[in-house]
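Lab notebook, design round three. We kept the backbone fixed and only want residue identities now. Task for the bench partner: fill in a sequence for the structure below.
Input structure tokens:
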């Protein structure tokens, strides 16, 4: 018997950084494998819901400049997350709502006009080969599909099993933070810092650094002074850990963070706040507050 033909999504414009992401691969840190997954998980889940997918179906995550793709079969798609202009073969269509993309038409998510990371969901999901139970790209380890390049082709899942999309009523999407407020719990090595440094962390004005990425949100602002010198042996790191490298500026670990590290962790940001961190553009005002 001839196997059924696989439908594909072709990359016309890859953008600055576009990756395949799903709910990630938690539970492997003891083997040195990070979590990965969509940085703005609520946005990815909402995009999936709007096309009738399960919440953990694989989507495209774009960074700042969007992307353009062309399916070889008709597909229902949603572009959400960071706000942007959306077109099908150059004609404007709705952002944040299901649109029908004909076979061979180009769906384009333009540059972000607010926020940083966009999510493109397709009925049936994207179905590249999973690695350790996830289709997510991990930029640090290299697991999962590579970041997209022009000409790449991604397999599309069968939309037959998708549930019906919700009604056509507008769906509220979270806004982009004008100021990022990150609640932080004391970390396992807060005693490596002076009392003044702990006060600075919870009172000073920081900004999101342009050197941030999927591994960590870097900050610009006052350095945190250590009370102890010397080095730590590598120890386990968790999502949201606030690590302080030698320059003294806090780094908030995001989904592609390493599973171990040797710099002291002064605190841990509550996971519920990290979706907003995923959409904070460089220069966004940032405050740490006590959780």
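Proposed sequence:
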């Amino acid at each position: 018997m001839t196997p059924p033909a696989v439908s594909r999504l072709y990359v016309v414009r890859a953008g600055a950084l576009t990756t395949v992401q799903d709910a990630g691969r938690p539970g492997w840190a003891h083997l040195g494998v990070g979590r990965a997954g969509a940085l703005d998980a609520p946005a990815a889940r909402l995009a999936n819901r709007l096309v009738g997918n399960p919440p953990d179906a694989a989507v495209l995550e774009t960074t700042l400049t969007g992307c353009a793709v062309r399916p070889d079969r008709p597909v229902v798609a949603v572009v959400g997350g960071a706000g942007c202009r959306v077109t099908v073969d150059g004609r404007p269509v709705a952002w944040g709502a299901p649109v029908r993309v004909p076979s061979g038409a180009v769906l384009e998510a333009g540059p972000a006009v607010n926020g940083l990371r966009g999510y493109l969901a397709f009925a049936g999901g994207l179905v590249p080969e999973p690695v350790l139970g996830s289709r997510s790209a991990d930029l640090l380890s290299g697991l999962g599909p590579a970041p997209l390049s022009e000409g790449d082709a991604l397999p599309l899942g069968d939309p037959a099993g998708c549930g019906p999309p919700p009604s056509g009523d507008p769906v509220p999407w979270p806004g982009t933070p004008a100021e990022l407020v990150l609640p932080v719990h004391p970390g396992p090595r807060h005693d490596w810092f002076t009392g003044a440094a702990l006060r600075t962390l919870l009172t000073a004005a920081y900004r999101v650094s342009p050197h941030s990425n999927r591994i960590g949100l870097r900050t610009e602002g006052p350095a945190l002074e250590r009370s102890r010198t010397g080095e730590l042996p590598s120890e386990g790191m968790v999502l949201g850990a606030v690590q302080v490298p030698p320059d003294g500026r806090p780094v908030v670990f995001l989904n592609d963070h390493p599973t171990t590290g040797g710099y002291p962790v002064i605190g841990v940001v509550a996971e519920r706040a990290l979706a907003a961190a995923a959409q904070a553009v460089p220069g966004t005002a940032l405050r740490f507050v006590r959780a």
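Keep this in mind before ordering anything: The chain is about 10% helix and 35% strand.
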